[in-house]
Amino acid sequence: MNNPTWDLSIFYQDFDDPRLTGDIQSIQPLLQKPQEIIDANLPVVQKLEALVDFENQLQATLSRVFGFVGLTLATDNCNARALRMQDELGQQMVEVKLADSRIARFLSTIQNLDEVIAGSEKLSSVAFALRETAENARHMVPEHMEKELLQMSLNGADAWSKLRDRLMGTLTCELNGQTYPLPAVRGMAYDRDPSVRKAAYEAELESYKKVETAMAYCLGCIKGETITLCQLRGYDDPLSMTLAQNRMDHETLNAMWTAIREALPDFRRYLRRKAELLGHANGLPFYDLFAPMGHSSQTYTIDEAHRLLVDTFSAISPDMGAFIDNAFQQRWIDVYPREGKSGGAFCSGNYEANQSRILTNFMGSFSDVCTLAHELGHGWHNRCMQRKPRLLTDYPMPLAETASIFNEELLNRQVRKTADDATRLTLLESALQDATQTIVDIYSRFLFESAVFEARKTHIPTAEECNRMMLEAQEQAYGDGLDPEVRNSGMWVCKSHYYSPELHFYNFPYAFGHLFALGVYSRYQQEGASFLPRYNELLASCGSDTIPNVALSVGIDVRSVDYWRSALQVLRDEVEEFLRLTEGK
User: Fold this and answer.
1) Which helix (H) or strand (E) covers residue 191, if one does?
2) Chain centroid to CA 210: how far?
3) What is the pTM (predicted TM-score) of this model?
4) E-assigned strands of 115-249?
5) What is the DSSP letter of 438?
6) What is the mean pLDDT of residues 120-141?
7) What DSSP assignment string belongs to 296-350?
């Protein structure tokens, strides 16, 4: 790979690019259009068509500007120009949200909305988005308060979230007399040397002490503002608001958690066996959760990962293989960890450019290759969305994981087919590692966030309280699978999802996505290549209906506990295989 950093020139050449200045300057005049359209002496159908055109133009502009600024900061957290532009754009977002609110309020006043939509091909093509917008207007804050609340948020939850990003982007760890960025130290959890894993874990926990007081205030203030906004918008609680935003219902969520709680003892059996194999008598210490197993010591360069992914996915779909190859060749990916770069991984798509950008912190493990497959799955999802109008490309978070988990499952199973016994054990255990994170650890994160919201009703939880709540959540989720003396009380510090001002309970979508993708993958296994057109259409339709209806398009009833049990059975079978392969070792 000639250049392991991503190319952002699809947006702008740099911060001096006159196109960037022009786009920013165009936003404010553009925001006057909705009211002009609404006030115009035109038939309602023409007004709605004009508002659809406005939304397409606005979203295209915002996607370019925010994409460039946000992605710059993702790899250069202290970039002064990007930080200043982010603040300036944040001010403009107040007016953007007000413009969207005017449209929503207008839609909610149209008594014969279905009839109006049916009379226009353009409106019919985005009917779901229009009806959903009209319905969501019922949960908007009172109009006379909206602008002031949005402005206050800039100095409230938005500001706390930015502080969190700044603190974590510059947080370093002291390890063996050297200073490392936090993502690099967290990546050492996959090292084959147990002393490295343990030392990295201890350095990670020690580093959190430097920021945990500030982080507790960031978390508490963001959650406190959310509770107030829920009350103003007429939601029962933050979880109900999140489910509505995700086009999901309590029945679906409860069905999933019921099946997951039933399956926790099986995950704990896996963790205890892993602990025994590593010489631990009291459950698995947290620092060995990601310890590689088996005798295979294979690591991958980025070029080897590139070739493996292209070969694997080309075998089932030449289009997918070509897509992945293009992502590497055209510098869609920022590969390695470095100071000032965000930890973890993500994929960000741009509809107009028909491209995505992928951030990873690649260290060479097979898990890192799976992460690449995961994020490229998001990229493929973005590519499939090109079939739909822009207004139908905003899909809910639980469905956002469908293609990414599908990719991981396919990669892991394909590689295991031809692997020797040692490698197969390594890959099986790696898959169980990942499943444990997206099922068991995600459940602990859901419990933790629920506890934070409950505590925030009366006070801002201290760092000590947050540490305690995290340990209690890990106890409920992991049970005797983890050593009770060696858990990770600071996991709430490093997970950015807790600190989003607008996305709360950004945890259950991962469990949902993993298990839903297993169901989709099972359909693929049953039907083979003939299923892929339906699969691609499923991905394209994720923004076009509610989650239960989208799932039914491939024969999955997500409100049924039995569905979730059947998906979890795939993972239980893998636990049994792991126990069988390691028996007597």
Assistant:
1) none
2) 27
3) 0.84
4) 172-175, 178-181
5) I
6) 93
7) ------HHHHHHHHHHHHHHH-HHHHHHHHHHHHTT-EE-S--TTS-SS-EEEEE
